[in-house]
Design goal:
This is RmlC-like cupin domain-containing protein. InterPro entries: RmlC-like_jellyroll (IPR014710), RmlC_Cupin_sf (IPR011051), UCP019307_cupin (IPR014500), YjiB-like (IPR047121). With 182 residues, this protein is mainly beta. It has helices at 50-60, 157-163, and strands at residues 14-18, 36-40, 63-69, 83-89, 91-96, 105-110, 114-117, 123-128, 133-139. It has a single domain, classed as Jelly Rolls (Sandwich), CATH 2.60.120.10. The longest helix has 11 residues, at 50-60. The radius of gyration is 15 Å and the shape is globular.
């Protein structure tokens, strides 16, 4: 599938944004103050597929789709890039911020939701349906994504995150949208 697909009108889109404090070795949003942003029901079509999502993201050109999979069940984060996750099928509960973090976010997500995970934000799956699949995408031209776990010995994490830029256009709306609005 190629080309843009219908998205929820911005005026009716429900968006939640979370600032999550550093917890142990997981920086979360403490370095760049860019929130974890959840676009609830941004792709409203009941016929939505991973191919539709990939075609839309490629047409917008802000993020490049790189994989289809579930989410790992171990808390991890990325220090070399931000990540856009779009739920292509199923539903479940995800954890952001790290286990034991008093500021953690547990979020129910479902097909058609998108999650903009800023670099440093710990994330993992808690409980998902057997058909749960996401399209994972990264800013066009960004360095290869890394896997960090907040463990001792992971060096240079803060410095890599500090060097990252932010979006000039929303990766789903191709202009103004939740990623570039306050």
């Amino acid at each position: 599938m190629t080309g843009k697909i219908p998205v929820a009108p911005l005026a009716s889109l429900r968006v939640t944004k979370h600032q999550i404090a550093k917890h142990g070795g997981i920086p979360n949003t403490s370095i760049h103050n860019k929130p974890l942003t959840i676009y609830h029901g941004v792709f409203p079509s009941p016929d939505l597929t991973a191919s539709h999502i990939e075609g839309h993201l490629k047409a917008v050109g802000v993020c490049t789709p790189q994989w289809r999979y579930t989410m790992f069940d171990t808390t991890h984060f990325h220090s070399t890039t931000h990540e856009l996750l779009v739920i292509a099928s199923g539903h479940g509960k995800l954890l952001f911020g790290g286990e034991g973090n008093p500021g953690k976010v547990e979020e129910e997500v479902t097909k058609g939701d998108a999650i903009l995970v800023s670099a440093g934000v710990g994330h993992r799956r808690l409980d998902v349906t057997s058909d749960f699949e996401m399209v994972g995408s990264y800013p066009a031209g960004s360095a290869h994504w890394d896997m960090c776990y907040g463990r001792e010995g992971e060096t240079g994490v803060d410095e890599r995150i500090e060097k990252l830029g932010w979006f000039e256009k929303d990766p789903i709306y191709d202009g103004d949208g939740p990623a570039v609005s306050e």
